[in-house]
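Recall that a protein's primary structure is simply its ordered list of amino acids. Everything else, from secondary elements to tertiary packing, is in principle encoded there. The following example makes that idea concrete.
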Amino acid sequence: MNAWFGLAGGRVELFFAVVFGFVGLMSLLYSVISIRGKRAIAYFVFLMVLVGSSLGAVFSQNLVLVFVFWEIATFALWRMLSFRKTEQHLAWVWWIDFVASGLILAGLLTILLKEKTANIGQFKGISVSLVPALLVLIGILAKSVGLPLHIWLSKRYKDAPAGVGALVSGIVGNIGVVLFFKLFLTVHVPNSLMTISAILALVLSIVAGGVAMRSNTMRGILTCSTISQSGFIFLGLSMLSFYGILGGITYVFAYAVANAGLFFSMGLVEDATGTGEIRRLGGGARKAPVLATATAMLGFSIIGLPPFLGFFARLGIVFGAVDEGILLGIGAILAIFLSLVDLVRLYTMVFLGDGPSNEWRPVNWFLVGIVVLMALVSLAGGFFAFLPIRFLGPGIS
């Protein structure tokens, strides 16, 4: 019984827990002000269930329980998405999640039936064949909102509260990173699997960056950014090198905090202007200069500009990619460039220019303060980047 329900954590697990807890707390504070109506209580209950189940996945030492906790988090997310949508509209999202979960479960059961254990501690040193490992990998990428791009994204984020967008990008999608780390960095897998993983992750990152260029809504650009950054994280982990893994896990922190902050910021812009169409926006920096400054800082961290934490994390992933092959290194740099173009375009269209800035209504200063706090955390993470790097190092090596 202890082996089945055992919860334990090392340095990496504690790191994930801090990231998930912080994003969850910020989403809770943001939603307390922004969520109203008869279903608000249910919304907050499922928010707590989502955060709690994500922490369960982080600390669980049983692969089946990691999967179960992820399913609980997904169900809670589905109920939160229905806050502004009909369940019929969400059916497509649910079916994609169902198929992805089926792939993961099929792969895990194949592995567990062969090894006759689900305890992660007993998986060290064993070899896993390509087919079940590939099923788990594809399921993780799909469930982490990576596949299929254009269908998955628009359905999941359209009209969702900003707090939900932050939870998806900051927590739910990253549970896949937790499962990837616990399984594929514990067992021996064929080299071809990590090659496939790296290529898929890089293609997702680049394609998502390209799709964002065709989007004319804030949510569309941010959802593509979510996929691009998620793919970049999986690229780092797929390297199986110290710098690649360290960069990937560190970037979870940089991306989760900054991307959640951007969702909050864009939610405030939508509330202030009544639209998410970037062609109908502009001049926001004159109406909300503090929000504009904080948003720029968050974007800098995601892009990977110094001295923000994202710079050091991305640098580690690029080093790991170059070490594996020059083409992967070039692809990683291209993915970063596309992120730069997408977020600069988003910021320029929303906050700069001569758009209809007179249509901006006053923004809630408490919510702006949350965005500012997340921007400052991103900046402080860069100045003190040696702390997470030093903390994670022993847990990775």
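The radius of gyration is 20 Å. The chain has one domain: 2-396.
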